[in-house]
Every structure is written in structure tokens, then in C-alpha cells.
Amino acid sequence: MKKSSTSLLVFGVYLVGMGFGLLFAPNMVLGILGFPATDEVWPHVVGLLALVLAFYYITAARADLRTFARATVPARIAVFIGFAAFTLMGLAGPIMILLGAVDLLGALWTGWALKAEG
After folding, report:
1. Which of 7, 74, 93, 98 is the most buried (most CB within 10 A)?
2. Domain total for the chain?
């Protein structure tokens, strides 16, 4: 497996954890992120979407799909920028920047691996 694919696999596993957390224990995850507990469906929906994204990432990693890997780099950087903006606008606490940093670091890892692979 190429290094870029390994980075996708690791990110996919992270998304599995986040997805299952939001799907089955949403108020625990929301509490960690500084959001109030809720009985609404949206955290479960986000958890399911995270699991779908995890499936894409893991499948792409196993198939060494460089085109997919390249496409994830700007998208994950945009997630970091968006989460930072939510924090600056007062919509979320600083933990969101940390959460976005996971996306940013993953994007940088994938980008560097792609560059090294030529």
C-alpha cells in the first residue's frame, strides 16, 4: 500500500470512530465537543454520513486511488477553514479547531505522500 493510501486508510478509521460515536452515543460526542445534549436526529445523520465517508476513504485506500487521494486534500483543508470560521463566529468552541486540525493534518500527510510518490 502506498503512503498516500495509508493516510486515507488512517483517516477512514478515524471517520469510523466518529461515525459510530455520533450514531450510537451522540450526546457523549457532543459533550466532548462542547455542544449541549439533544434528542434531535441530526447527530445520528452526521454519524451515518461519517460512516459513508469512511467507507469511501477505506475503499479508495485499498484500491490505491490516487485521484481520490488528490481530491481529498483541498476538501479536508476546507473543513479546517470552515471549523475555524465557526469558532471565530462564536458558533462553536475552540475544540472545533482541534477537530478541524485532524482534517488539516490528514490532508497535509496525504499531499506530502502524493508528492513523494511522484
Report:
1. 7
2. 1
